[in-house]
Amino acid sequence: MTAVVDAAQAVPERHYTHHDGRGVTPHRSNPAVIHRELTTLDVQAGMNIAEFGTGSGYSGALLAELVGPTGHVTSLDVDAYLVKWANLIHHERSLDHIRCHVADGTAGFVERAPYDRMVAWCTPPLLPQAWVDQTVDGGLIVAPLPIAAVPNMTVVTRVRVSGGEPVVEAVFTGGYIEATGSPKGNLDLPGRWVDWEMRTPAPSWISIAWRERDDHLHTGARTALARLLKDAHTEQYAGAELDWPSWRTFAAHLADPQLTMAGLSPDLWAIGHSSATTAAILQQDGTILADRPDSPSLAVLLDWLTAWEAAGRPAPETYTPAFARGADGWHLRLSR
């Protein structure tokens, strides 16, 4: 941690996040969280580093400070505007050993590989095989990864590449904006796995883990969202104030194929259960909405909550992580 603290003292944070020429960088990560991830990354002088998500350039400047003039940092972002400005600000500070590139970071950046360390400030749909292939044996990757195929179900992972395969060493509470192939315009809408969206009379969306069983018109997703928006049964969760990171991790680890996430207003996420005929969700403010008082989905949701409370509201760090190989990379799942 001492090295990161020293680097933070040497790098002018607001010069990057609130630059006079470019303006304030939207949707930037909390500096304290950046410092935590970089401490977890265990960067040493002279290393070759890749970061995914250039953003304001602040995290890249910290990495450049940590590796020193004998190291190199490659920073990737899909937003050309941010990349151009970050390169300029680094140049203004005489940082010659960091370069920012416009690229889809999920493919890595083979031109500068192999890397001793990789760090991501955006969430890919799975751990890309390209990241594993471009990391040296024994190298580390610190990145947020999904634990279910719906938005915002993530943990931050420390992954060691060993023998060409990833091994999870630790998980932490946290997550970042979804990695997308182009700059994200609407920061209130998830960048991935939104199965139906309404924009009138107010923005709302739904994500269903059973999307492969829905039809090409998204009838199931549309119907489930409509049930939650119109004449829904509402009640307040009877338990104590929600611990959202604990609850969302528990819901994800159940691996229920009917898992559902929704946003009925821009500021409130919700987790629940849905099917072709029923739907129920629990919002972050403790409000439960269901298609009817005797909803089968409501019964399932209440059973999940009872099991969560009985388990003692476990922290994300207490789960056992494991990777399963997929077609293009590695899916992370948690168990207890």
Please characterize this protein's 3D structure:
The protein is an alpha+beta fold and about 325 residues long. It has 2 domains: about 1-170, Rossmann fold (3-Layer(aba) Sandwich), CATH 3.40.50.150; about 195-310, no CATH class. About 25% of the residues lie in helices and about 30% in strands. The strands form 4 sheets. Strands 5-4-3-6-8-9-10 form a 7-stranded mixed beta sheet. Strands 11-12-14-15-16-17-13 form a 7-stranded antiparallel beta sheet, sandwiched between helices. A 3-stranded antiparallel beta sheet has the order 7-19-18. About 45% of the residues are buried. The mean pLDDT is about 95.
Descriptive labels:
single chain, 336 residues, 2 domains, seven-stranded mixed beta sheet, 19 strands, 31% strand, globular
Could you spell the SSE succession in H and E letters?
HHEEHEHEHEEEHEEEEEHEHEEEEHEE
What's the alpha carbon Rg, rounded to whole Å? 21 Å
Which stretches are poorly predicted, pLDDT < 50 over at least 5 residues?
A: none
Percent of residues in helices: 25-40%
- What strand order characterises the main sheet? 5-4-3-6-8-9-10
Look at the structure and give the CATH class of the largest domain: Alpha Beta
The CATH H-level homologous superfamily of the largest domain: Vaccinia Virus protein VP39
Structural class: alpha+beta
- Number of helical segments with 4 or more residues: 9
Task: For the record, give the distance between the C-alpha atoms at the N and C termini, rounded to a whole number.
Answer: 30 Å
Which geometry do the CA atoms define? globular
Q: Would you tell me the overall average pLDDT?
A: 94
Largest sheet: 7 strands, mixed
β content, as a range?
Answer: 25-35%
Total number of strands: 19
Briefly note the CATH topology name of the largest domain.
Answer: Rossmann fold
CATH architecture field of the largest domain: 3-Layer(aba) Sandwich
How many structural units, i.e. domains?
2
